[in-house]
Sequence to fold (180 residues):
Amino acid sequence: MFSADIRYGLQQAKLLSETDELTGIFNTRGFAIAANRLFGQALRYGRPASVLMVDSDNLKGINDAHGHDAGSRLLRQIANAIVSELRATDVPARYGGDEFIVLLPETPPKGAADVAERIRAAINSRPLMIDGQRVATSVSVGIACYPEDGRTLDALAARADRALYQAKQEGRNRVVRYTG
Fold:
């Protein structure tokens, strides 16, 4: 019984070290573990894979106007919307602050664009309720795809981040695919 308690404790510690406490999805550590394995399979078998970087367009404004509790609710709402648009084999994670990353194994550019647009639309159509008032929410999404945009997971994440930055500069609430 004592060894079962130790095993359970170790499992809980592992779960806590790989999960974002606020959203319940992977944190960057958990993402790296799961995504590296899946991306390795894409490399080995020459299969497509895509990375999405998703960033809240109005977290700072909500935090400033309504407090950090409202900002935390927004982050949970975004994470839930992302997860609801993914397959069981996709890997979402909170990348830090108000940024999320998603690995889409077996997904070419067109499929990644479709998923990104569904995520963007889902979040845009669900305003955050704060004190009985509807507060509009939106995200910007950057996309990078293997093998076209990079041959490592780090390169794809960096390029998806660059595309995300471009989406922000072009007015937010949009999806942009990385272009070299």
Notes: The mean pLDDT is 92. The beta strands are 49-56, 91-96, 99-105, 128-130, 133-135, 139-146, 175-177. The domain at 2-177 is CATH 3.30.70.270 (Alpha-Beta Plaits).
